[in-house]
Amino acid sequence: MLKLIQNRPNQTGLIDIKSRKDSDNLAYWLVVMGYYTSYNAGLGATERRAVEASWLGGKIPFVVCTCAFGIGINKSDCCWIIHFHAPHLLSEYVQEI
User: What domain range includes position 81?
Assistant: First the structure.
């Protein structure tokens, strides 16, 4: 995952993860690696909107997110999606991509 991110510094993407706890843990690890980004339903509305605006506006290259982020998002230059946890159902996979 880290190699994919490092090899695509100018591309926008998402890291889809199943739980808020895992999202926070992965985001913390990525902060240690020099990145920042996390989004989950546990954030306050203002913080969620700030992360969303930063990603949509190209200020941050990717977001570690739960499905709460992806619903209704349409970003034409999103080049990659990493499924940190494999979706359980085909319908989940379709929603996540």
Answer: 2-96
Q: Which residues pair with 14 in a beta bridge?
A: 63, 81
Task: Residue 39: give its domain's CATH number.
Answer: 3.40.50.300
State the Cα–Cα distance between residues 96 and 67, nearest whole angstrom.
7
- Total domain count for the chain? 1
How much is the pTM? Answer: 0.83
pLDDT tens for each residue of 30-86 = 888 888 677 777 788 898 888 889 999 999 899 888 877 767 778 899 999 898 988
8-state DSSP, 35 = -
Contact present, 85 and 79 (Cβ < 8 Å): no
Q: Which residues contact 38 (CB under 8 A, 6 or more apart)?
A: 23, 24, 26, 27, 51, 63, 64, 65
| pLDDT surpassing 90 at residue 3 | yes
Phi-psi region of 40 (alpha: psi -120 to 50; beta: other; left: phi over 0): beta
